[in-house]
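Expect chain and fold; see below:
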Amino acid sequence: MRREKDSLGELDVPDDALYGVHTCRSIQNFNAAGEPVPIEIVYGMAKLKWACAKANQALGLLSEEKAQAIESACKKILAGDHDDQFPVDVFQAGSGTSSNMNVNEVIGNLAAMALGGKPGDRHLVHPNDDVNKGQSTNNIFPSAIRVAAVTLTSPLKAALKELIDALNAKAEEFGDVIRSGRTHLQDAVPEMMGQAFAAWAHALTKDLRRLDAAYERILEIGAGGNAIGTGVNTKPAFRPAIAKAMTEITGAAYRAPENGIEITQYLTDMADMSSVLRMIAMDIGKCCNDLRLLASGPNTGLAEVILPAVEPGSSIMPGKINPSICEAVNMACIQVMGNDQAVQLAAGAGQLELNTHMPVTGYNLVRSFNILTRSAIMLAEKCIRGIQVDRERCLKYFETSGGLGTVLNPKLGYDKVAELVKESLRTKKTAKELVIEKGIMSEADFEKLVARSTQPNLE
């Protein structure tokens, strides 16, 4: 052990620890979650510390030697070499002070070692005076959440595009399969099976646009605003210099805040991003619900589609196959919606110049990103790409659907069609059979009318 001192006194720190006394106190104090702050947020702080060092050096406030040592330390953290050095529990002081100091201490000690010292040599690189120079937890931690969200947006978009591509491929494959639509779970007008898949794909395409809009807002970072966002003890050029350095480091177009005080006390942009993730979860979940219904049976349900078998479905019923992937994704989507509720409650709990519910906000936002990314890929690869359609079953439902008579409305009127539908249900004859039998129209005219109903733009 080595002995370190802070304003509360002395404390033993493990010799092999890269963190210091503040982190040790945090480990002793906080254990409610039983898991640390997501590493993506730690990496966000490391990027910000690197950017702040560059900005401080450019403004003549930090020596080149220290700035380069801090940069080297941040790169090692971002390489994943020291993930185990960030053990602070999620549920800590609401601004994230413990995690900010944890990162400061690890960077400071790594930088000291790069300059020939050892952990605890604060005279070489000080965690507060050098690593945290011109910063406050109050804007570093929420900025780190934003950085994590920016980083996680790209893989989520890629996963959603993979899912959209898979759905669109099935839309094309099933473009010639006619089926009965359903509203209120009752027979409705016909559509092509490919149209159903195309609709799911388009819903997710709209979600991508929502994600892009939220992404633009999350690029605004408040780092350098200090305690309440006024930028006390910093130069006016500091915040723009941080944003510029972040862009150079990451390639993302970060920008300084329009109002430093607002961005310090409001977490609304994070809640906005979380709400987009909730809507993505809602749309993916709806797709899974539809697939579970369409695959129900196979003998006593709809059984219009056949989902890939990924595991035996029962420990007691031999041969049973369940829609396991859809069920797993459904649960994942429910979790994301629950995460969003936590984010919304936390974002609305701010008081005066600071919202002290930042760690729980970042925790749930990061979880939602990762859950949705994995779920979209799993659904595309393990389910959508392997879906088959029962063409005969779809045709049977189409021919016997009570909703099929609706296409006759323009020709016969609502009341006459209602009588035909009742007769169809009573006699078990299809609408097609009845209109031909009664001489209302020929088979060719009826099929042309049906084709026009599924492709309304046809002349």
Observations:
- The mean pLDDT is 94.
- Residues 143-218+266-390 form a domain with the Fumarase C; Chain A, domain 2 fold (CATH 1.20.200.10).
- Strands lie at 2-6, 9-13, 178-183, 186-192, 305-306, 388-389.
- The CA atoms of residues 225 and 231 lie 4 Å apart.
